[in-house]
Write a structure and sequence with these properties.
Elements lengths: L1 E6 L2 E4 L2 H10 L3 E3 L2 E4 L1 H9 L3 E5 L2 E2 L1 H10 L5 H13 L3 E4 L7 E4 L12 E7 L6 H13 L3 E7 L5 E6 L5
Parallel strand pairs: 1-5, 9-10
Antiparallel strand pairs: 1-2, 2-4, 3-4, 5-6, 7-8, 8-9, 10-11
Helix pairs in contact: 2-3, 2-4
Length: 170
């Protein structure tokens, strides 16, 4: 099991298990002599029983970690549902903050660093409304980064429906 620590805004581990899982499944990001995890990656690994996160010497557990991280990200539950769904389907999912999106999604078998992500993903609740202006802005970001737009809509039961938007030439 990976032993990780909450350090400020980061969740990090320098354990050999963390490096091994990174090489096998691309969980986390290699940063010098440690692996740094996104919030949703850490939540997923904790829920799967593959990681334990500590704050100081105290183990947070899944509920403690969720409570801690939710303070910083109100959409964490929805992002976590979409992230978990895609990882279980075999996709590699990484954050996409520098693209102004929530996630980058790689086709099955493609590892970050070896090729580019195919999709830029935004999450939404089925009760949310998205204006045409917001939709066009998201689509422009995807197009400018040479990726397809993927919207993951989470319903009240926690099921996800994906909509892929691509550019077509007449």
């Amino acid at each position: 099991m990976i032993s990780a620590h909450l350090a400020g805004e980061s969740i990090i581990s320098s354990s050999s298990d963390a490096f091994s899982l990174y090489e096998k499944s691309r969980f986390g990001e290699k940063k010098k002599n440690k692996i740094e995890y996104s919030n949703v990656e850490a939540l997923f690994l904790v829920s799967e029983g593959k990681m334990e996160v500590f704050s100081g010497r105290k183990s947070l557990g899944e509920e403690g970690l969720l409570k801690n991280l939710r303070k910083k990200d109100k959409k964490l539950r929805m992002k976590s549902i979409v992230f978990s769904d895609l990882r279980r389907r075999g996709y590699i999912v990484k954050t996409a903050l520098k693209f102004g999106a929530e996630f980058r999604v790689y086709e099955k078998g493609v590892k970050p660093g070896e090729d580019h992500a195919k999709w830029i993903l935004y999450t939404a609740s089925e009760s949310e409304t998205l204006s045409w202006h917001d939709f066009a802005a998201k689509n422009r970001v995807a197009h400018s980064t040479k990726k397809n737009l993927l919207i993951g809509v989470v319903d009240d039961e926690g099921d996800v429906t994906y909509y892929e938007i691509t550019w077509a030439r007449p």
